Amino acid sequence: MKLNISILLISVLLSAVVFAQESIKEERTKITSEEEFERLFWKKGGERLNKTSGEISEIKDIIIKGNKIQTEVWNYGSICSPGALADVRDLVWNGLGYGYEFGLIAGAKVMSISGDSISIISDSHVSPNEGDYDPSDVLKWGWLPKAGFSDPNENEIASFTAGDFDGDGKPDSWPESWYSSGAGKYLWPAFLGDASTAPDEEVYFVIDDYTNYEFIGQYQPFNGDATKGGLGLDSDVRMLQFNNPLAEDLIFSVYQMTNASDKDLSNFYMGMYGDPHIGGVGDTGDDMAFFIPPKGELANNFDQRARSMVYGWDLDFKGRGGK
Ligand SMILES: [Ca+2]
Ligand SMILES: [Ca+2]
Ligand SMILES: [Ca+2]
Description:
Layout: E1 6-13, H1 34-41, E2 61-64, E3 71-74, E4 78-79, E5 101-111, E6 117-123, E7 144-145, E8 179-180, E9 185-186, E10 201-208, E11 233-241, E12 250-259, E13 268-275, E14 287-292, E15 309-314
Antiparallel strand pairs: 1-12, 2-3, 4-5, 5-6, 5-13, 7-10, 8-9, 10-11, 11-12, 14-15
């Protein structure tokens, strides 16, 4: 099976304090038909995107605040980044910072050209001394954003609530290609469609792992093409926020990943790593974490719906400076 699509839904649960929500939200129209989606994005999944590789020049970020969580998102798979949020853009932990970095990781065991079994892993770590980079620490050997999913003249990732500050009818961070001549306006490629459950904020971007050249001499995902490395993975990425009281302290990260390569991937894993930094810089020594397994002795004390979950906490329930 060449096409290997998997969807990962991760909830990041953070306790929160109320902050002022921006009350002005422009009315937006979303794509609701399969035909319109395919016109703008070609066919879902498959080989639509593998012509171009992700690029360093496409790296952008955005601060999202669609509910009680305000955080920074980078368009190569990371939520937060080392040192970027610090105590500035954080309204959850009372000025202590709450995220060093969260991000996407995917890997597979494949057969090399010489017949050896090798494991290739693509990560989104921002810092060269934590993630995979080329020897000069410049090119990310992992996830990078593809061009075409935001306005090339804007610094922000496209988001559902993006402003139209120049008044030209196009939300400023959206790419020109999202204009629908049939609808006579720009349409948001909504994940959930135009339903009552539509999120209050949504960001959308597309990434690939083609610049992961660590094993390019031993494994080429696209036959005869040594310019593309990694596993040959494309992924649509969405971050969703709902202002509903049931979900106001959650961010949903949805990755729709496609094996766009010429080869099968039979031994494949994907997931998310995270460093929640609970209590802020200087109080990370007592950050704790646990995984509640789906069943067994360690799961018995937990409600069924709480299982298969990773969570973190601060050991003494106090952050830096006693906060
Ligand atoms: Ca505009
Ligand atoms: Ca701590
Ligand atoms: Ca502490």
